[in-house]
């Protein structure tokens, strides 16, 4: 199935209250983009052209409503001294934090985004992507937020202990992390891209709402304020369960919030859907990676049922980044189901679409 509008045409029409062809849809491939362009994931660590070409090829292949430059959660922490595992054809992971003890905090550097670690590679990839796709689709950089980066600087386990035993040191780590987030983000914005934030360690699955408000929210809020001083808006994804902090996120003035599959879409829309766009929650593993085509189709329709009445808007999206080997045909189904639903969306149409099977398994 083919779209009748580009993502930018769709977004502009929606903003003006005009008719669109379908709801926004973003499968959220992450490093699966390497499978679309035919390169190794490790190529992204040294070649900005390979990273950009994979982002561009993925947009051309599926027609999703975003072109995102992102590889892993550790770009900033690596630039601040953390050591990485870099597999030949899999996602980069944290090997060692930047410091082993809070007494080493003065060793943490302020980064130069044009020189340090893989940051220049990503900045150049952003330039390439924006230059080629800027007239068709919103181009963004997904940047890890200040609290999550702070956790990777010293290690998650030690950070958890510090939150109980040494609050002052946690704040110092978050302040350094915030400054480096701002430095990289400022350079990213200068390439022309928009900004989306990933703050997975803010999840209520990881820390309590109390600790979120004490340690994460002050720095995330400052970061959001910085981005909004430069751009019209900003989006965020937080993994896991987030219900207890939904209103906190809305209070920061964030424009769009992506929720994980274990979060309740209907509940989220009823709670904050009048204050921000809500996206997400199609299961990336059990459905998108391991499900049949019909299971993908039904999951998308059910997510739309729960979300499409959000006053500020709703978008179809997987609840988190898709596993690398997610079947391409399942990604096609997500996009084609958005086209099948079309516009306008009604309860009756969705009930009818759920009552029929489109794919013979």
TrEMBL record:
GO terms for biological process: porphyrin-containing compound biosynthetic process. Transmembrane segments: none annotated. The keyword Lyase applies. SUPFAM superfamilies: UROD/MetE-like. Keywords: Lyase. It is an enzyme of class 4 (lyase). GO terms for molecular function: uroporphyrinogen decarboxylase activity. Its EC number is 4.1.1.37. It comes from the Archaea. Residues 7-340 form the Uroporphyrinogen decarboxylase (URO-D) domain. This is Uroporphyrinogen decarboxylase. It comes from Methanococcus voltae.
């Amino acid at each position: 199935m083919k779209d009748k509008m580009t993502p930018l045409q769709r977004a502009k029409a929606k903003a003006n209250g005009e008719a669109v062809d379908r709801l926004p849809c973003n499968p959220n491939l992450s490093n699966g983009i390497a499978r679309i362009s035919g390169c190794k994931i490790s190529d992204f660590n040294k070649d900005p052209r390979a990273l950009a070409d994979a982002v561009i090829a993925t947009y051309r292949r599926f027609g999703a409503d975003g072109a995102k430059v992102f590889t892993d959660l550790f770009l900033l922490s690596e630039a601040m001294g953390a050591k990485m595992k870099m597999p030949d054809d899999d996602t980069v992971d944290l090997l060692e934090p930047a410091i082993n003890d809070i007494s080493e905090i003065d060793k943490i550097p302020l980064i130069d985004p044009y020189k340090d670690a893989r940051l220049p590679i990503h900045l150049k990839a952003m330039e390439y992507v924006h230059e080629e796709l800027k007239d068709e689709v919103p181009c963004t950089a997904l940047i890890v937020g200040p609290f999550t980066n702070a956790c990777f600087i010293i290690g998650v386990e030690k950070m958890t202990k510090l939150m109980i035993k040494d609050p002052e040191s946690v704040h110092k780590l978050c302040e350094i992390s915030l400054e480096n987030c701002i430095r990289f983000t400022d350079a990213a914005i200068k390439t022309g891209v928009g900004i989306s934030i990933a703050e997975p360690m803010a999840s209520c699955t990881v820390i309590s709402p109390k600790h979120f408000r004490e340690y994460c929210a002050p720095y995330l809020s400052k970061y959001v304020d910085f981005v909004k001083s430069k751009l019209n808006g900003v989006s965020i994804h937080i993994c896991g369960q987030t219900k207890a902090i939904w209103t906190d996120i809305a209070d920061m003035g964030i424009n769009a919030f992506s929720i994980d599959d274990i979060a309740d879409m209907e509940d989220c829309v009823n709670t904050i859907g009048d204050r921000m766009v809500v996206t997400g929650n199609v299961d990336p593993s059990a459905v998108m990676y391991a499900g049949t085509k019909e299971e993908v189709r039904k999951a998308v329709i059910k997510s739309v049922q729960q979300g499409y009445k959000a006053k500020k808007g709703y978008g179809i999206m997987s609840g988190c980044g898709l596993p690398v080997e997610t079947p391409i045909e399942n990604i096609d189904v997500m996009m084609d189901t958005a086209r099948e639903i079309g516009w306008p969306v009604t309860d009756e149409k969705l009930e009818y679409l759920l009552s029929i099977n489109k794919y013979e398994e």
